[in-house]
Every structure is written in structure tokens, then in C-alpha cells.
């Protein structure tokens, strides 16, 4: 598991347009890197829309928002368009990013165990170090917690 102060694992993948995206291209900026389980599901849609609705406030802090899930670029493109999301969605079909960040874990629903993404957000400082970790995120009020943390740093 990653800790505050660790160097954030770099990654290279594609965004919702199929264009290459890597963490290092954002060096020098504060990054809000949020991991979510699946496009177009209730909790993930609520979380994405909360980021959208507070995007101007986040942008004022100078931070960049990147959403990551194991969905395909095509799925991300539809999700982004449907909900008018103003930030980049990173496709992680290989699950290399979710594994590097330790958010691909065993979960349980209705007594059934399965592997999935545990909703987690990392704030990465301009030098590429993890400044804050929000584990096992509860969607309601989460963006406000992020904004409070961004304002404090």
C-alpha cells in the first residue's frame, strides 16, 4: 500500500479519446487522481458529477483532476459525453494502474467475493509525491473533503 510522502507510481495509458496519457506529463501541477469502479453506475456517476459540479472550485486551486477505472476508452468517452465531464478519464483495462496504487482489492457484495476497484483518491503534489490519500471513499461530501485538503496545502 502507498503512503503519504511516497513517490506516486508513474503510468502510461490512454484517455477517453484514445490519446496517450501519463502521470509525468502533469509534473509541476497538483493532481487529484481518483479511482472509481465503473462508468455509468450509480455511485460512480454521482462522484463524477460532483467533481464536474465543483470543477471550477478545484481548478481555482491549480489542481488537475484525473479519473481512472478499468473501463475502456470507448466506455469513458460515452460516460464523459453523457454527463459533460470536464476532466480526463484514464482507461486501465490492463489493471496495471489500479494494482500499482493498491486499489485493486478483494471486495464482497451479498456474500460473494470478487476483485474490484476500491474507491480511493490520491492528491499528488507538483513534485510527484503523494500528499494525501482518501481510502474507501464515501461519495457524498468527498469533493468538499478534497477541496478542504487542497486549500490547506
Structure description:
With 153 residues, the chain is an alpha+beta fold. Helix content is 29%, strand content 30%. The chain has five helices and nine strands, in the order βββααβαβαββββα. It has helices spanning 42-53, 55-60, 73-83, 96-100, 142-152, and strands at 12-15, 20-22, 30-35, 63-69, 88-91, 104-109, 112-117, 120-124, 130-134. It has a seven-stranded mixed β-sheet. The protein has a two-stranded antiparallel sheet with strand order 6-7. It is globular and about 40 Å long.
Give helix % range.
Answer: 25-40%
The count of β-strands is: 9
The main sheet orders its strands as: 2-1-5-4-3-8-9
- Uncertain stretches of 5 or more adjacent residues: none
> Which value, in Å, is the CA radius of gyration?
14 Å
Note the total helix count: 5
Span of the ends, CA to CA? 23 Å
Category from helices, strands and their pairing = alpha+beta
**Mean pLDDT, all residues:** 95
Shape: globular
Key features of this structure:
single chain; 153 residues; 5 helices; 30% strand; globular
Outline of the structure:
This protein has 153 residues and is of the alpha+beta class. The protein has 5 helices and 9 strands; from the N terminus they run βββααβαβαββββα.
Produce the secondary structure layout.
Layout: E1 12-15, E2 20-22, E3 30-35, H1 42-53, H2 55-60, E4 63-69, H3 73-83, E5 88-91, H4 96-100, E6 104-109, E7 112-117, E8 120-124, E9 130-134, H5 142-152
